[in-house]
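Q: My labmate handed me this sequence with no annotations at all. I'd like to see what the chain might look like in three dimensions before we decide whether it's worth expressing. Could you predict it?
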Amino acid sequence: MKWPTLKCPFCGGNLRNTDLRRGMPLVCPTCEAKLQYSKGQLWLSALIALCIDLAVLYLVGLRSLWLAVATILLWFPVCTVWEFVFVRIIPPRFEAYAPRGYKGGLFGN
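A: Here is what I predict for the chain of 109 residues:
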């Protein structure tokens, strides 16, 4: 599968896939805006992975405590595989970079 084309939400410029680093902003080469992967899309992907995990384990026949334990243990591997598929179905969205601990809003740090 081909990696999706990454676009800047501000200027529409192409972003380089090789510049993605965890915890670091992605800088648009066209407008020099600092970007980060959309937190909403990350949460959505994690929630879908949790639902897939629960559904598969339920269909396998796990119930009650075993279902909860297996869900906790298998969520991260399922989430990792799902994220690989998810970014090819829905291209990654980016938002303005907010440093760790930044609250934002009117009375943010």
